[in-house]
Write a structure and sequence with these properties.
Blueprint (H helix, E strand, L loop, with lengths): L1 H9 L1 H35 L10 E4 L8 H6 L3 E3 L1 H43 L6 H13 L1
Antiparallel strand pairs: 1-2
Length: 144
């Protein structure tokens, strides 16, 4: 059983998946920082600094007006935090768009590299007679 487990772990696709998860986690941190520190402030400029994060409706309990969502949660008040959900959706759309743009760029680079390789292979192929040339030569030889 231990040998089977070693064989399973040593397979390329399992190792590739592990590397993908690790890189994905690091990439997620980068994209979240980009959204929070670069994109959201720019969006805030266009929306007049509107931030939905602290928008909520008190379901049960009492809080003073102007209390932040975090303070309300710490006080044990039951809240319907629709603002956090709206910000999560906005952040998701921004992150999805950024990932789409990165994947699109990587695909273009990959296609360009494949096209270049195909041209190199095409150029390296020996320039011999085509099938039609050989058939014409055989026909001419038979006529003689």
């Amino acid at each position: 059983m231990l040998k089977e487990f070693k064989d399973f772990i040593a397979k390329g696709n399992v190792m590739d998946m592990a590397v993908g998860i690790i890189v994905g986690a690091a990439f997620t941190a980068i994209v979240k920082a980009m959204v929070a520190d670069l994109i959201n402030p720019v969006i805030g400029i266009f929306t007049g600094g509107l931030d939905f994060t602290n928008r909520f409706i008190v379901i049960a309990g009492e809080v003073a007006a102007g209390t932040s969502l975090e303070a309300a949660r710490e006080a044990g008040v039951s809240v319907f935090a629709y603002g956090s959900f709206i910000m999560a959706v906005i952040n998701f759309l921004i992150i999805a768009f950024v990932v789409f743009m990165l994947v699109r760029y990587v695909n273009k680079v990959k296609e360009a590299a494949e096209k270049k390789e195909a041209e190199e292979v095409k150029e390296e192929a020996p320039a011999g007679p085509s099938e039609l040339d050989v058939l014409l030569e055989i026909r001419d030889s038979l006529k003689k």
